[in-house]
Amino acid sequence: FDYTFDERASNDLVYRYTAAPLIDTIFNGGNATVFAYGQTGSGKTFTMGGDVSSAKTDYSHGIYAQTARDIFHRLSLPQHRSSVEIFVTFYEIYCGKVFDLLNNKKRLRVLEDQKGLVQVCDRKEQQVKSVQDVLNIIQQNFLILLSIEFYYALNSFLIFIANISGR
Questions:
Q1: Which range marks the domain in which residue 148 is found?
Q2: 38 is in an annotated binding site
Q3: Tens-place pLDDT, residues 68-99
Q4: Residue 113 domain-assigned?
Q5: H helices of 50-156, where?
Q6: Which of 49, 152, 144, 64 has the alpha carbon at shortest distance from 101?
Q7: Confidence (pTM)
Q8: 40 is in an annotated binding site
């Protein structure tokens, strides 16, 4: 692990040390992954998605939203303006099965390609053009997931992917 954080760490601090440095990697043509791992109840959903469980839900301080803000800020700079498109996928892994959260929880196939890489097939990609588009996707799916049975939610893993490509 590059870093570990305890319950006193703010989402802003976690973002600054983990995902924020990866923005340069992305804009230099590389790939980046932020992986939240921890015990049930340790704050992974809060860290990645924001405050999704209180009466005053706030998705704006999660890693997803902060990353989206930095990416769209970078895209507003003259050297990147109008040169890229962003498509996101959002899926869930539950009991060894994969479900597309952007397509009514359609079950997806997971296959190994000729290079030995794992591919999630037929997942829906949705273009996003603003931070608000990303927040809307997160909000819609967290509301659905939080409304389901508690035990189910504890054993579910979420994968949010943003693909940035040149036109």
A1: 11-166
A2: yes
A3: 899 989 888 887 766 788 999 998 888 889 99
A4: yes
A5: 63-75, 131-146, 150-154
A6: 144
A7: 0.78
A8: yes
